TrEMBL record:
GO molecular function annotation: magnesium ion binding; phosphatase activity
Transmembrane regions: none
Pfam families, sorted: Hydrolase_3
Protein name according to UniProt: Cof subfamily protein (Haloacid dehalogenase superfamily)
Entry annotated with the keyword Hydrolase: yes
Protein keywords: Hydrolase
Annotated Gene Ontology cellular component terms: cytosol
InterPro entries: Cof, HAD-like_sf, HAD-SF_hydro_IIB, HAD_sf
NCBIfam families: Cof-subfamily (TIGR00099), HAD-SF-IIB (TIGR01484)
Key word Hydrolase present: yes
Length: 273
């Protein structure tokens, strides 16, 4: 089955270690688009963070942000869908995790990703690279205010525990009404139940009339695993997290070795041109 859509993660996958799009990668993406293939960024970033590299990659069409919770057209601003974690579910997550671990800090990402409602103390742990936002721009709210409104995603962070350990603790609770993942950043991300990059990608493909088997997907982190398993062809990059590698059909070279570009360049749809 021919490839009609390329879905690619950004950080750790398409972007190099300097968070840049290499010349080879840009050329491969352009060649795919010239061959009539949709190229869709599928990222934990919000549109604001995606905008920092959109011009480098030539992204002007549909994008899936917030781990698949938000489908948006970068050119028109049209929202195809949004999925929110409701306040009651957020409060249940915060209460259960705090009882199990303690010392946690929370952020609610709201309103198309423009609002970053951070709990007091969160900014002291954060760096610009974490959220593509400067810590001094972050709010410092009481926890009750953070949890009071629906979120595209709820961020959970601990001063010392890493994302793999936090993810194990959260999944051990088996809380209803939410899905939990991480993108390799130093926190976990709570989404509405059933939401993942695969969930968002399936909705976009249905909108575009593209079949599952016509999708080529790239990723490197636990939040990419569902997408890599769902796509007709799922490719993990060489340094990928074990969750991503086990979900993928194959492994490409690393992001610093233009692994995504190498796979795209070899597509028969391009070589036939």
């Amino acid at each position: 089955m021919r490839t009609r859509l390329i879905a690619t993660d950004l950080d750790g996958t398409l972007l190099d270690s300097d968070l840049q799009v290499s010349a080879r990668t840009r050329a491969a993406l352009d060649a795919a688009r010239a061959a009539g293939i949709e190229v869709v960024p599928v990222t934990a970033r919000q549109p604001r963070g995606l905008g920092l590299i959109a011009a480098q990659a030539g992204f002007t069409g549909w994008a899936l942000c917030g781990n698949g919770a938000h489908g948006v057209h970068l050119g028109t601003g049209e929202t195809l869908f949004e999925a929110h974690v409701e306040p009651f579910a957020q409060r249940a997550v915060a209460a259960a995790l705090t009882e199990r671990i303690g010392g946690l800090l929370f952020v609610s990402v709201r309103e198309r990703g423009e609002v970053f409602a951070a709990q007091a103390g969160y900014a002291e742990l954060a760096h610009f690279e974490d959220h593509k936002r400067w810590p001094h721009e972050m709010q410092a709210l009481p926890l009750a205010d953070v949890l009071a409104a629906p979120s595209l995603k709820l961020i959970v962070r601990h001063p010392t525990l890493g994302p793999d350990e936090l993810l194990r603790e959260a999944r051990a609770l088996d809380l209803p009404g939410v899905a939990v993942t991480h993108s390799g950043a130093p926190f976990i991300e709570v989404l509405a139940a059933g939401v993942s990059k695969a969930w968002g990608l399936s909705r976009l493909c249905a909108h575009l009339g593209i079949q599952q088997g016509e999708v080529l997907a790239f990723g490197d982190a636990p939040n990419d695993a569902e997408m890599l398993a769902w796509a007709g062809r799922g490719v993990a990059v060489a340094h990928a997290h074990p969750d991503a590698r086990s979900a993928a059909d194959e492994v490409a070279a690393s992001n610093d070795e233009d692994g995504v570009a190498a796979v795209i360049e070899a597509l028969p749809e391009l070589s036939a041109r």
